[in-house]
Amino acid sequence: MRRRTIGAAVTAAAIAATALLGSAGAGSAAETITAFVGQQKVRVADVGKPGPSPGDDLLVRVELFADEARSERLGSVRAACEQLDRNHLYCWNELTVDGRGDLTTEGTQDLRTPVVLDPITGGTGDFVGAVGTVTVDFSVGVLTISIV
């Protein structure tokens, strides 16, 4: 179960990063960006019973790429997640889009479903005033950022 929890946290982080990569600033046209998850680094603080339990913390860093071959880097995602119960994490995500700025997202991740949808909560650079969502499909490692 710990492997699945870490995978979900990594995916959540990647989703957040994707949102950063594809968001448009205030007054910009709508934009949709698709990103592919690359190298992932995870640190776990297992503070309760061994295995996933309330209060456990996960710190995640994920590299994001523009292509499925993972040869064109888009940016990265950093996430801090807290285990709420056996099936849920709450994650705060910071996505950096190389040369464009940062986006933030946050939300609850249900570990029983392969798809997560989080709102964009802030942005810098090209992403100031961005409004939209980030969707991640954990089953295929693809993130979609939708800026409205």
Brief account:
The chain is mainly beta and 148 residues long. The chain has one helix and eight strands. 43% of the residues are buried.
Using brief descriptors, characterize the structure shown:
eight-stranded antiparallel β-barrel; 1 helix; 148 residues; globular; mainly beta; 8 strands
The CATH architecture category equals: Beta Barrel
Estimate percent helicity: 10-25%
Task: Specify the biggest β-sheet.
Answer: 8 strands, antiparallel, barrel
Q: Structural class of the secondary elements? A: mainly beta
The rounded distance between the terminal residues' Cα atoms is 36 Å
Broad CATH class: Mainly Beta
Computed CA radius of gyration, to the nearest angstrom? 14 Å
Question: What is the CATH T-level topology?
Answer: AOC barrel-like
Number of helices: 1
Write the CATH homologous superfamily: Allene oxide cyclase-like
Strand order of the largest sheet: 1-2-3-4-5-6-7-8
Number of domains: 1
Q: Which segments are poorly predicted (pLDDT under 50) over 5 or more consecutive residues?
A: 14-27
Strand content: over 45%
What's the overall geometry?
globular
Tell me the total number of β-strands. Answer: 8
